[in-house]
Amino acid sequence: MIWTTVALVLVGLYLSWTAGRLDRLHARIDAARAALDAQLLRRASVAQELATSGVFDPAASMLLYQSAHDARLAAEEQREVAESELTQALRAVFADAEQVEAVRAAPGGEESADELAAAVRRVPMARRFHNDAVRAARALRRHRTVRWLRLAGHAPFPLAFEMDDGPPEALVDRANGGGPGH
Questions:
Q1: Angle between helical axes of 97-105 and 109-141 (0-180°, round to 10)
Q2: pTM here?
Q3: Could you give the CA distance from residue 6 to residue 136 in angstroms, rounded to a whole number?
Q4: pLDDT of 57-94, one tens digit each?
């Protein structure tokens, strides 16, 4: 009788610990997604600001502005595509170091270029943190005990955020101290 009680208590503690761990992972996913959303919004905002600064030729301004605008207003199911398109627009506009230097030479351009470079570097990190949390939660939710006893409750199955987040090399290299003469 005592061994049965001990076994039941141990099973109960394990299940409680597992459910708590799953809950913490879901909270971590929510926090990581909020951080990712903030970085994506920051990147799109700075890109829109630069697009309207008058530094770029009209075609580059239009491409950058429209891509940033679409990324900011994209519905959740279209968000990954819109953010990838903004990444591609940034790479196209900042394809060479001369464009980065032209932005930096404009009034207020140094700060704007540094802010964009920082945002462009932070997006992949925020996405990696989010996707790592999703991967950990998915692994725990795959366990039979979690599935059979429905320890995840009604929480939706976590989804990774997949997008093209490769930074424009000319922008990131210059911000890291690279560029001409380095």
A1: 120
A2: 0.83
A3: 30
A4: 888 899 999 999 999 999 989 999 999 999 999 999 88
